[in-house]
Predict the structure.
Amino acid sequence: MPVGWTISARGAAVAGLAALAGLVIGGCGGGPADIMTPAAQRATTSAAPGSGSSASPSAPASSGPSAPLTGLPATGARAANRPAVAVPLSGSQLQGLGSADVIFEEMASPLRYIAVFQSRDDSSVGPVGQTRPTDGQVLSVLHPLFAYDGGTPSFIKVLDRTQVVDVSSGRYPALYRAGAQGPAISTSGVRRAARGTVPPQLFTYQGPGVGEEASFASTGSWRPSSLKITAPGQATQAWAFGARSHRWRLVSGGPSVLAANIVVQNVPYKTVFLSRKYGLTTTSARVIGSGSALMLSETGSAGHRTGEAVKGTWFKPGIHAVTDYLDPNHHPVGFRPGATWVILAPPGTRVSTAGGGS
């Protein structure tokens, strides 16, 4: 049966309190097998010699290195330890999204995407857009090489206060190729032009001990085959779970892409000025704080895999912190290794699933 709800500001506040409570509860009790709670992960990280202050979710055990932003086996230690390249994209003819490990979708005007590449490169990513205030909030924890095509002076000043490495068209013009829709870049070219560091892991993944039949949440999950998202002022997005691909496909309302995981993250939006002189404004997503979220992945045996969904909460206490995604029991959601699409949904967004019961 279909499951639907509308995101509201009040709901986000309630969910935020639940997320905060979950951090306390999570440190005291155990979660699903092979999934480490955020509190336990932070304790492990702080105790390890040479560890930084930012926490990362737990990763599944493997015989070799894993790509930090997908949880999939890396092609070697060098690939696992290279920096991420982040690119804001906007336009009707997007290139390169299919190669990204993580995509953040900002439902502003115009609709824009922040694509993050680490495990794979793409020789033509574009049209490259301008920077917006959301970029620093989303990307600072990844300290990526950030390729963008200008922006207002105030937006660039905001970006300069974060931990991204500026590889903009103003500083590295030779990296940007002109195109009919806008400039394009090669992610490997960006990586050769500037130095960076390996990003932390953004998501908690199910370990091999969980078993193929296990749910990715400790409680409250259901098995939908489709997802619809309608945000104010935006076209309706429709996603469908593919029985053969075992991935979620965006079938309408955006570029045709595949994702192992989808997060519909309820966030507030703030009005910002593009030009005070001419009174031009847009909206900008704010991803620091807490709120409600819908997380979708996949489950089942090797011969019969289905989509899986759970409603829970997200929590990001500061710009340099990894976001925690928690189920109704305040345990971290265990995503399947692969690409993840994060939709930054504004208040008033309507979300529904079909093909399963809650």
